[in-house]
TrEMBL record:
The keyword ATP-binding does not apply. This is Protein-L-isoaspartate O-methyltransferase. InterPro entries: SAM-dependent_MTases_sf (IPR029063). It comes from Cellulomonas bogoriensis 69B4 = DSM 16987. SUPFAM superfamilies: S-adenosyl-L-methionine-dependent methyltransferases.
């Protein structure tokens, strides 16, 4: 039977018994013990504040039953004088009981609200943790597949951080292996430069990679040399210059650095950095669309950021022949460009 004696039930029974005893002592004109037992009843009921709405409902029903019992007791009092005294005492006791129940209900609602917020935070934390674990698993799987695709001659630079993430790199590599571009232009040199260099070396293509900072270009150049990709990778320094696109001036790569490059089969946009300007990468397509091949691919990294989402939206709205292609990588936008009016 002990399994039925839960704390809630014990507290409820204590409160009910103390309340009944208080009423009986009140009718026997013993206010001291009656008040003490009434206090015990209130404490017992207050102890039920554990966020259980059902207990509040039961307490309301108990109060209603008590009220009916009090009315019945009033009708049994023999004299009007006694009835007046008892009625006053009972009404005072009834007010105290109802006040205690109201306080209990308010505290229960507040407790339920705070627990609800805590549960929501816990659920959100669990959701984020599961998402992080899933992403980590996918990154490991993508990294294993990537290194199976390329026989590197040296250690390849790490992904993540400032560099492209592993899943986005996997999607980019898969796209290059499928489309086999002959000329690729990369805006923002780094980890992808080495990977693209290996893929284009296999297919007989070439990579033109630009960066606006000499130190980053030098670091990438050293990696290219370590992997023996100098014949494939054309690394250029293009300082940021003021360019005008749609009557708005923004800092972007010095256009003359790419003036000799035409028939671009794939444009990989991973720069300039976000901090250089609002919509820092938007000028890429308006300025280079005429240099694209009639059937070309455009890849934008960091596509989950606000500026990059807005960049893609504007490109699709403003450039005829541009469509977005789904990709499993959330942080990579892949678009296909087919020049309007060009022969198939």
């Amino acid at each position: 039977m002990t399994r039925y004696l839960t704390p809630h039930r014990v507290a409820l029974a204590t409160g009910a018994l103390a309340g009944v005893a208080a009423l009986v002592l009140g009718f026997l004109d013993r206010p001291g013990p009656a008040v003490a037992l009434l206090a015990l009843a209130v404490l017992a009921l207050t102890g039920l504040v554990v966020g259980q709405h059902r207990e509040v409902v039961r307490a309301r029903k108990a109060a209603e039953g008590t009220r009916r019992e009090i009315e019945a007791l009033r009708r049994t009092v023999p004299t009007a004088k006694q009835a007046g005294k008892v009625a006053d005492r009972v009404e005072a006791m009834e007010r105290r009981v109802l006040t205690a129940l109201t306080t209990f209900q308010s505290e229960a609602r507040a407790w339920n609200h705070s627990r609800g917020e805590e549960h929501a935070r816990e659920a959100q934390a669990v959701k984020q943790l599961r998402s992080a674990v899933r992403a980590m698993t996918q990154d490991v799987d993508a990294a294993i597949q990537l290194h199976d695709l390329v026989e590197a001659r040296d250690l390849i630079p790490l992904t993540g951080g400032w560099a492209i993430d592993t899943r986005s790199l996997h999607s980019l590599v898969s796209l290059v292996r499928t489309t086999r571009p002959r000329t690729v232009v990369e805006l923002g040199a780094g980890t992808t430069t080495v990977w693209l260099g290996y893929l284009l070396e296999r297919d007989g293509g070439r990579l033109v990679s630009v960066d606006h900072l000499q130190r980053y270009a030098d670091a990438t150049s050293q990696q290219v040399a370590r992997h023996g990709l100098e014949a494939v990778v054309d690394l250029r320094v293009a300082p940021l210059a003021e360019v005008e696109v749609d009557d708005v001036t923004r800092p972007w790569y010095e256009p003359s650095a790419l003036a000799d490059v035409t028939a671009i089969d794939m444009l990989v946009v991973d720069g300039p950095p976000q901090r250089t300007a609002d919509l820092a990468r938007y000028p890429a397509l308006p300025l280079l669309v005429d240099a694209l091949a009639d059937d070309a691919w455009v890849v934008l990294d960091d596509a989950s950021r606000h500026d990059e989402r807005e960049t893609v939206r504007r490109w699709l709205e403003e450039i005829p022949g541009l469509t977005r292609v789904p990709t499993p990588a959330d942080d990579l936008a892949v678009l296909r460009y087919q020049r309007p009016g060009a022969s198939a």
